[in-house]
Design a protein that fits this description.
Length: 220
């Protein structure tokens, strides 16, 4: 596992980054071709109560709530959660709730959620934490509940703007991303990690950007 101090730099980066944002952006980027597949997958598997992991300022939670789901978003950055709660107050929405917290220290009841969303989250974890994460989140999802996970092809930054850590993660050191951690999990690693942690892949496709879009079932 990479040193706690280096991992902490990644967390500090996120809080700094979110502090600079004045207003949450809730628009849906056209470039992300898989977005409509998220509500489709949750509907297909009869999911109602969804956990949006590392939700940032909550744009995907708002999107899913509009599609009729009940949402809980969790993020470690107080500033991100403040932005999300700002939108919530403005729109006076029900069936949506944001929690400031660490994805490794969640205290939701066991089997509480039908589905779990992982977007732009996993690749910010080093290998050992990535492995731990895939196992740790299972207890909050019902047996046969599903994960919709997007596993991006990342860490292709210019040499010199990052250090390569012992597990292959890149930790950026340029002005705008100082501390941010990115690790590219290749297809074989991802396949092995999902299997080992007891997620049974229901569908997996790769888009034009090399993101692996995975729907997987929670085997208990
Ligand atoms: C690239 S952003 C993605 C946000 C959102 N999921 C999205 O799709 O836009 C990564 C997020 O992960 C959050 N994060 C990183 N480590 C975390 C942790 N240990 N617990 C909770 N949130 C974390 C950061 O604060 C940041 O908001």
């Amino acid at each position: 596992m990479i040193e706690a101090e280096l991992y902490q730099k990644n967390l500090d980066f996120w809080e700094d980054a979110w502090q600079r944002v004045k207003k949450a952006n809730t628009s849906i980027p056209d470039v992300l071709d898989y977005i409509p597949e998220i509500p489709q997958a949750f509907k297909k598997h009869q999911c109602q109560n969804i956990l949006d992991l590392a939700c940032g300022s909550g744009w995907l939670s708002f999107y899913l709530q509009e599609h009729g789901f009940k949402l809980t978003g969790i993020d470690i950055s107080p500033s991100a959660i403040k932005l999300a709660n700002g939108v919530l107050a403005e729109r006076q929405l029900e069936d949506i709730n944001f929690v400031e917290g660490d994805i490794f220290a969640m205290d939701f009841p066991e089997n509480h959620f039908d589905g779990i969303l992982i977007n732009a989250c996993f690749e910010h974890l080093d290998y050992d934490r990535g492995k731990e994460f895939l196992s740790a989140i299972k207890k909050f999802v019902k047996p046969d509940g599903i994960m919709f996970g997007v596993f991006d092809k990342v860490a292709s930054g210019e040499k010199g703007t990052y250090e390569v850590l012992e597990d292959g993660s890149h930790q950026y050191n340029d002005e705008y991303r100082d501390g941010m951690l990115l690790r590219y999990y290749n297809d074989d690693e991802l396949d092995a990690l999902l299997k080992e942690s007891g997620w049974q892949v229901d569908s997996l496709r790769k888009n034009d950007f090399g993101s692996r879009i995975v729907v997987a079932k929670n085997l208990k």
